[in-house]
Amino acid sequence: MGQTLLQKVWDLHTVRTLPTGQTQLFIGLHLVHEVTTPQAFDELRARGWKVAFPNRTFATVDHIVPTRHRQRPFLDVMAEDMMSALERNCREYGVPLWNLGDANQGIVHVIGPELGLTQPGLTIACGDSHTSTHGAFGAIAFGIGTSQVRDVLATQCLAMEALKVRRVRVTGVLPRGVYAKDVILAIIRRLGVRGGVGYAYEYAGNTIERMSMDERMTICNMSIEGGARVGYVNPDETTFRYLDGRTFAPQGEAFARARQWWSSLASDPDAIYDDDIEINAEELTPVVTWGTNPGQAIGVGESIPTPEQTPEADRAGTAEALEYMGFRAGQQMAGTKIDVAFIGSCTNARLSDLREAARIVRGRHVAPHVKALVVPGSAGVRAAAEREGLHQIFRAAGFDWREAGCSMCLGMNPDKLEGREICASSSNRNFKGRQGSATGRTLLMSPAMVAAAAVAGEVIDVREIA
Amino acid sequence: MPTSLRMKELSGTAVPVRGDDIDTDRIIPARHLRSITFDGLERFVFDDDRKEAGGAGKAGGARGVHPFDDERYRGATVLVVNRNFGCGSSREHAPQAIHRWGIQVIVGESFSDIFFGNSAVIGLPCVTASPSDIEALLTAVEKVPSTPVTVDLDALACVHGSVRFELTMPRNIRDAFLSGAWDTTGMLLDRFDEVRDVAARLPYVSGFTQR
C-alpha cells in the first residue's frame, strides 16, 4: 500500500513512541523570532539545559520591528526589550541571528525558503502558526507554542499527535485575475475554518502543479486558517529548480543526491487518504472576505449571505460578523470604500506578489482618501524589487515603500489601523482587532485586488482595470 | 513524576464564554505579547471583547458585561466554550492568560489543534462534549453562576448539579494528565541517544555528503 508524503516524513523523523502514546518527532529545522521565544530561553537557563542542535535553529526579527524608523533603541520600550532578549539569547546559545540591517532579515516564513533552509522532507517548527508556509516544499511544517519552542531548543524534538491527511485537488486553468490567494480563500470557504482540525492538507492537482513556489507558499501559508496545522505540496521539478543554488541548499553532487531523496518522498500514486476533495479552478473568481474569519468570503461579484443562507450552526457567527463589520446581508463587497491598502505579510509579500501589484498600479495613483503601503517580506525581496524599479512604481503611485517585517498584519508594531478603518489587505487574518485597532476591519484579498482597491478607493474587481 | 503534576478531578464554578471560532487574537490581542515574560497576562485576557462588552453593553454575559468581568464568575476555575476555541495564532500567551486568570480546565465543543497542544503542555486540559451537553452546561452556569462543576479526567465525565455528561479527550493526553507526564521536556530528553541515531540517519543532517 502506498504512503503519503506526510507518512513518509513522519516515519523518518520518529524517534520513538512516548509513554504518553504520542510520537517523539525529530525536528529538522527550527526557526525562531523575537516574540514567542524569550520565555523558552529563560526556562532553558533556569533548568540548566543547552540547545541540543544549535546548527538546526536560525533566528530573525519580524513581528515587532518598525518598518519605517528602525533606529535603536526603539521608541517602544517593550519592543526594545524583546529585541535585546533575542540578541542576548542567540549570542549565549550560539544561534545565528539575521538582525535588522542584515541582507537576510525578514519575515521568518519568507527568509527560510529564500535562503534554501526550507527543503523537502524536513520537519520544520516555529513559534508561529503560519509555519505551514514551508509545506510548499514538501516539508512537514507547523506552528508551535513557547513551551514547545523550549522543547525543540532543549531536545530538537516534539511530542506530537498523529495527523490525518486530506487531499485537496485543484484542477483546471485559473481564470485571468484569479490568484493563489483566491484559491486558498475558496478552499477555506468550502471546507470551513474548522474543517481542517486534526488534518494535514495535501494540495494536489494540475493547478497546483503548474504553480510557482511563491504561489504554493501562499496556499500552504493559509492552511491554518482552515484549521489545518499542516499543509503541503509534493516536491517536483519546480521545487528543485527553486532550491538550486540557494545559500543553504546542497550544492553540486550533494544536490543531485538530495534531489533523488526528495523525489522519493512524494506521495505514492496509490497512497490512501483520510479524505479527498476536488476544486475546479476554472469556476473561481477574485475573492474578498466580508466577515471576521477567513472562511467568511465571497467572490467579488457575489452578495454577502444572509444568516439564513448560511448553515444553521454558523448563523449566530454570521450575524455577529455582519454587526462588527457594519455590512448588510445581500450587499456586494465591490463598491465598499476602503481607508487603508496593505500589501505585505508572510502570505503575499514575495517578489512575484509585488510585481503583480506594481503592474496594476503602474501609471495610476492611490485614491486621495487611502493610506497605502507596501511592505516587502524580506530585505532580500526588497532589494530584488528595487533592482527592478518596483519601488519607484509604488512610490509614484502614492504607496509608502517600507522595510521588511510583519507590519500591519498583526498589530504589534507601529503599523496599525485606527478606529473603524477598513483595510484592503493581502494578509491572512480578518479577525476582530487583528490589525491593531479593537474596532478595525480587514478585507482579505490578493495583492492584485489590494492594488486595484488602493487605486479605486473602494473594493473593485481587478479584472475591470487590468 | 511528582504527584503535584497529576490531575484527576477538577472542581469549582464555571465561567461561560459563548461563541464559535473565538480566535487567539481575541483571547489575547497581539499588543499584549510585547513582553519577555508571561507574568501579568491574566489582566489582558479577552481584553478587546471585555472593553467592547463594557462599552457597548452587548456581546457579553447576561448583564451587558463580559463574563470575565462579571463578579458572579469571579474565582471560576472551569471555562465553558463552544466550537473551534483558540483558532488562529500559535501564541501560547492565549492559554497562559486564561490559566493565570485562574482557569484549570476548559470544557468545549471543539478546540483548534495548536491551542489544544499549547494548553496541554502548560497543564491546562481541554475536554470536549456534545453540543447539547455544552449548551446545557452554559445555560446552567448562566442561570446559576454558583453551580458547582466537576470535571473528572479519569472517568471522562462532567457533573453540574444533578446532571452528568460524558467528555472526550484523546487517551494519550488524558493519561498524561492522570500520570502527571504532561511536562514534555524531561520525557523528550530521556533516551537522547535515540535522538542522535535519528539525526544520523537523516541525509540532510549531514548535508547529503554520504552516498
CATH architecture of the largest domain in chain A: 2-Layer Sandwich
In the sheet with the most strands of chain B, the strands line up as 1-6-7-8
Q: CATH fold name of chain B, please?
A: Aconitase, domain 4
Total DSSP helices of chain A: 15
- Helix and strand element order of chain B: EEHHEHEHEHEEEHHH
CATH fold name of the largest domain in chain A:
Aconitase, domain 3
Assign a percent range to the helix content of chain A: 25-40%
Radius of gyration of chain A: 21 Å
- Please outline the major beta sheet of chain A: 5 strands, parallel
Structural class of chain A, please? Answer: alpha/beta
The count of β-strands of chain A is 19
Please identify the oligomeric state: heterodimer
- Overall pLDDT metric of chain B: 92
* CATH homologous superfamily descriptor of chain B: Aconitase, domain 4
CATH class categorisation of chain B: Alpha Beta
The CATH class of the largest domain in chain A is identified as Alpha Beta
Proportion of β residues of chain A?
15-25%
Gap from first CA to last CA of chain B: 44 Å
Low-confidence stretches of chain A: none
Summarize the structure in words.
By secondary structure, chain A is of the alpha/beta class. Chain A has 3 domains: 5-160, Aconitase, domain 3; 164-283, Aconitase, Domain 2 (3-Layer(aba) Sandwich), CATH 3.40.1060.10; 287-464, Aconitase, domain 3 (2-Layer Sandwich), CATH 3.30.499. Chain A contains 15 helices and 19 strands. Chain A has helices at residues 5-13, 38-47, 77-93, 108-114, 146-155, 180-191, 206-210, 213-221, 237-243, 252-264, 315-325, 351-361, 379-387, 390-396, 447-456; strands at 14-17, 23-26, 29-32, 57-60, 97-98, 123-126, 140-143, 157-160, 164-171, 199-204, 230-232, 275-280, 287-289, 297-299, 340-343, 371-374, 400-401, 422-425, 441-444. In chain A, the strands form 5 sheets. Chain A has a 5-stranded parallel sheet. The longest helix of chain A is centred in the first third of the chain and has 17 residues, at 77-93. The model of chain A has no long low-confidence stretch (mean pLDDT 97). Chain B has 211 residues and is α/β, with parallel strands linked by helices. Chain B has a single domain (3-181), classed as Aconitase, domain 4, CATH 3.20.19.10. Chain B contains 8 helices and 8 strands, in the order E-E-H-H-E-H-E-H-E-H-E-E-E-H-H-H. Chain B has helices spanning 24-27, 47-56, 93-101, 113-121, 131-143, 171-179, 184-189, 192-201; strands at residues 9-12, 14-16, 78-80, 105-108, 126-128, 149-152, 157-160, 163-166. Mean pLDDT of chain B is 92; it is low at 56-62. At the A-B interface, strand 1, helix 2, helix 3, helix 5 and strand 8 of A face helix 2, helix 4, helix 6, helix 7 and helix 8 of B.
